[in-house]
């Protein structure tokens, strides 16, 4: 994949500043276009990554009980407005045939998927599908809770409103008791 073109981004930011009536040559804004370009390189770093690589290494451990990593902080950029949304992801799975992933790998997948222009719904689904495809678990459940700046600072102006999305696969879909157990653990403070 092509590298992020920081010079092109900086030029575009300069044009945006001019378009809103600002002087991009004033002292406080002189370095802003390149700062924004470097920030975009960071917040869109997932565009160059395949999140499934984090599951290339798995461990054999005879454990076929629930694994849940909750409160994985993430941030992303709304693809409709290019403003941030941020929150936490909760990722659960039931290993099968002793195949378990390193716990940090779950967080890395969330990071890689969220670091691109995104929709919360797509992050949720992509994390779940990646885990199902690469780990072949008995089931996966992914729940994201996020606050969207496109709802907070513009439009409807509702700070604090949270959006919750979920993706439920395999055993979690067919077993209400199991799904309830995960939700209870997620909501436990």
From TrEMBL:
Catalytic activities: GTP + H2O = 7,8-dihydroneopterin 3'-triphosphate + formate + H(+)
Family annotation (SUPFAM superfamilies): Tetrahydrobiopterin biosynthesis enzymes-like (SSF55620)
UniProtKB keywords: GTP-binding, Hydrolase, Metal-binding, Nucleotide-binding, One-carbon metabolism, Zinc
UniProt xrefs under Pfam families: GTP_cyclohydroI (PF01227)
Key word Hydrolase present: yes
UniProt pathway annotation: Cofactor biosynthesis; 7,8-dihydroneopterin triphosphate biosynthesis; 7,8-dihydroneopterin triphosphate from GTP: step 1/1
Main enzyme class: hydrolase
Molecular functions per Gene Ontology: GTP binding; GTP cyclohydrolase I activity; zinc ion binding
Enzyme Commission designation: 3.5.4.16
Residues the entry annotates as binding Zn(2+): 78, 81, 150
A Gene Ontology term for the protein's cellular component: cytoplasm
InterPro entries hit by this protein: GTP-CH-I_C/QueF (IPR043133), GTP-CH-I_N (IPR043134), GTP_CycHdrlase_I (IPR001474), GTP_CycHdrlase_I_CS (IPR018234), GTP_CycHdrlase_I_dom (IPR020602)
GTP cyclohydrolase I domain ranges (all copies): 9-186
Subunit structure, interactors included: Homopolymer.
Annotated NCBIfam families: folE, PRK09347.1-2, PRK09347.1-3
Protein name in the entry: GTP cyclohydrolase 1
Species assigned in the record: Listeria fleischmannii 1991
């Amino acid at each position: 994949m092509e590298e992020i073109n920081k010079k092109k981004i900086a030029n575009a930011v300069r044009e945006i500043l001019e378009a809103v009536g600002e002087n991009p040559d004033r002292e406080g804004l002189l370095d802003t276009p390149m700062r924004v370009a470097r920030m975009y390189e960071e917040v869109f770093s997932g565009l160059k990554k395949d999140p499934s690589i984090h599951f290339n290494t798995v461990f054999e451990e005879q454990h076929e009980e629930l694994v849940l990593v909750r409160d994985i902080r993430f941030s992303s950029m709304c693809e409709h407005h290019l403003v941030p949304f941020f929150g936490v992801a909760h990722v659960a799975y039931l290993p099968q045939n002793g195949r378990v992933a390193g716990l940090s790998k779950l967080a890395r997948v969330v990071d890689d998927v969220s670091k691109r222009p995104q929709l919360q719904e797509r992050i949720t689904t992509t994390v779940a599908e990646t885990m199902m495809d690469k780990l072949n678990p008995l089931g996966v459940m992914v729940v994201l809770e996020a606050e969207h700046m496109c709802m907070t600072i513009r439009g409807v102006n509702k700070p604090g409103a949270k959006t919750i999305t979920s993706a439920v696969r395999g055993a979690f879909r067919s077993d209400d008791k199991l799904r309830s157990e995960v939700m209870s653990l997620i909501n436990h403070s």
